[in-house]
Amino acid sequence: MSMPVSRRALLLGVPATAAALAVPGVLSSSASAQTPHQSPIDIHTFHAVTSLSLPALHVHYPSSLDLAVRYESKDGGQTGGCETRTAEETVLAEIPAGAAWVTVGGVRYDLANFHFHTRSEHRLNGRQFPLEQHFVHLGPNGEKLVIALFITTGGAGGTLQDKVLATVPEECNEDVHISHANLATALPHDLSTYRYDGSLTTAPYSEPVSWLVLNHHRQILHSSLSHFQDRFPDGDSRAVQPLNGRTVKYRPQHF
Q: Which domain holds residue 179?
């Protein structure tokens, strides 16, 4: 058994044989016709299997970090490069190497970037949230682990999300630089997660990706949400995908 398979089996609580079937790579049309493990999904809490034996999530994000926030355009070779907005595009903050990470089961996953989707890509009991934030991590062998955070309005402001969303750059504009961003408060104190084996939600939709979807959501200012949604009036989220026999695990982690 390879090391990445062992880590994913530990992290998600899936049998090692099932983990071994989902090898890294681009999902082909022939694979898609079999049993793809694609993301996002609609998480039904009453079907999720509670598993206290899954390793806890430990977050090591700094309280002060300078960020460069950019508009990630996927227009490619189109004239000007700024004409078309699709669900493939987002606003992304790249994280300096080694500046932030999480550990799960003693394995370190470094935070590579975080970005946003509106409306939410995942759903919870059929509910679609106004916004979803993805924290993309890479393991020792390049394994992808993504923490997903649902975001709603009603907050008092002052969150990392408010600070970033208030300065969302226009497509093809220069990066926006944010000084002393507090990543330590980016995630809620309640780190209870729904965990499953999935994929990237943008092309090439590669598998496998270990998904940890937080049960506790974050509230932001309505103006912060509006500022982001003004950039994506048609949204930038992928439709939910079939579960295809996968089991979603719930790992409570209350503090």
A: 29-73+88-251
